[in-house]
Amino acid sequence: MEEVGEQEQTPFLDPSPGRPPLSRAVSNTLNPGGRSEFLLQAKKNTILKSHGRPPWYDEDGHAVHDAFVIGVAGGSASGKTYVARRIVQALGSIPTVVILSQDSFYKKHGPEDLELAFQNRYDFDHPDAIDMPLFASCLADLKAGRQSNIPIYSFKEHQRLDETKYLYGAAIIIVEGILALHDPTLRDLYDLKIFVQCDSDLMLARRIRRDINERGRSVEGVLEQYLRYVKPAYDNFVQPTSRYANIIVPGSDNTVAIELIATHVRRKIEDRSRYLRKDLARIGPLDLTLGNPVDQSFPNLTVLRQTPQLRGIFTMLRNSRTRREDFIFFTDRLSTFLSEKAMEFLPYKSKNITTPVEATYTGKELAVEHICGVSILRSGGPLERGLRRVIQDIRIGSLLIQSEDNTGEPLLLHLMLPDCIRQRHLAKNSFVFLLDAQVGTGAAAFMAIRVLLDHGVPQENIIFVTFIVAACGGVRVLQRAFPKVRIVCGAVDPMLRETWALWDTTPQSPSQDGDSGGLGTPTAKTKAEAEAEGRKIWVVEPGIGHIGDRYYL
């Protein structure tokens, strides 16, 4: 199980392609900025992964299920965080999990409250100390599949910091906190409610050790706060919420309970599994006339005019004997043409300027607040240079979407998005160039568009730029599901052929359709072995092959 703590620019820690899932949690990766007060937040608010997030939507592009949310409550130092992590470990190979701590949602304190806090005279265990509306709002966003920016609270400063932690993409959310079951709005968001029951003496001993080692407190201060606030709050507010729990888990010796919980969660996640790729690959062909910009039934698909120059570029790119340096050169030329064409779909406004001869000229300039590129790794990478040639200093993010070994379904393994997408109030006014080399089944393109929509980017602000699309592939599904997304491509290829993945001596990525790479270490070297392993791929014909390999290797 992979784990990442507070990281500003890398919200997901992605396993390398072919790397098997780990069965145990590893140590946290902290913010490179190195602020020590992030330590506790990094430990509690974490994203853990084993093999990525599978599709959470249907063929119409609609999210069909929410994340599965588990609420874990209990007394201070009862072992809530430990139970949450043990549940994750017991789940084994599961999609992305977020562990969300109530401690992040302490209210921002004024001068008087800060003075009391530093004197250990502020009641942090009272429900009024928690910003419950913000807590519920952030959890509701994560449950619905939207991104959220979680507050960061410094226990040393006794203050909510200006920094936030970006979270997105969880299939399972575990919420832990002493008052996790107290607020009815929060309880309504949970699919499973757990209360950790622990002996009071054991909780006090754990709290003394934790607060001294992690929060820099003195023994006297810990005991005073415990007797004044912690124990009364537990009796009055925390313990009574156990009646809302579906399961009571002991604070120690809880292996059996955790295994039962993990079995239940695995069953629920399996019931929500989606298998769409074969349906995406078997859609009827588009009725396109090459050289004309659109099919009347798909007005947002634009194909570059098939000039002799463009056909010459494609001849070089399709030729398997083209030298690598020539392939890179012509790929960059084509990506520049595509980016220039995509620029036509951005909004412009008039601008008057004065020319060197003192004449007035009425021209145009971009009328966009934010613009960025997002590359679907790694086949979208060859389009980045052309985009940078057309838009200087454009911010480019990335998505790593690869195929699951057995089903061929796309898995979201990693994303690194520009800030104008990560912040929802900015995303709604942002235009995004989404880059991928080919649209075969359209599985990776479908997931990438869904990710942008989850962040608040409007459909009409997404321009998908690609070298080729398969006429009989998933582009028709993209049109039906996302009718306002524009697609700009260099050519439409007639065939999308289903075949078996075969490998020579050196295993290679099983995907050849440009949608994604593969996971695991393939072993098949003959058709019979490949069929036995069930590794099917879809190949675009005549196609360009695996563009990422040809461009980078």
Automatic annotation (TrEMBL):
Kinase as UniProt keyword: yes
Keyword Kinase: yes
SUPFAM superfamilies documented for this protein: P-loop containing nucleoside triphosphate hydrolases (SSF52540), PRTase-like (SSF53271)
PANTHER family, alphabetized: URIDINE KINASE
Biased composition (Polar residues): 505-514
NCBIfam families the record matches: PRK05480.1, udk
Name under which the protein is recorded: Uridine kinase
Recorded catalytic activity of this chain's protein: uridine + ATP = UMP + ADP + H(+); cytidine + ATP = CMP + ADP + H(+)
One GO term of the biological process aspect: UMP salvage
Domain Phosphoribosyltransferase, chain residue ranges per copy: 306-498
Species for this entry: Dichomitus squalens
Pathway the protein contributes to: Pyrimidine metabolism; CTP biosynthesis via salvage pathway; CTP from cytidine: step 1/3; Pyrimidine metabolism; UMP biosynthesis via salvage pathway; UMP from uridine: step 1/1
Family: Belongs to the uridine kinase family.
Keywords carried by this UniProt record: ATP-binding, Kinase, Nucleotide-binding, Transferase
Record region (Disordered): 1-22, 505-526
InterPro entries attached to this UniProt entry: P-loop_NTPase (IPR027417), PRK/URK (IPR006083), PRTase-like (IPR029057), PRTase_dom (IPR000836), Uridine_kinase-like (IPR000764)
GO molecular function, one term: uridine kinase activity
EC number: 2.7.1.48
Record domain Phosphoribulokinase/uridine kinase: where: 69-251
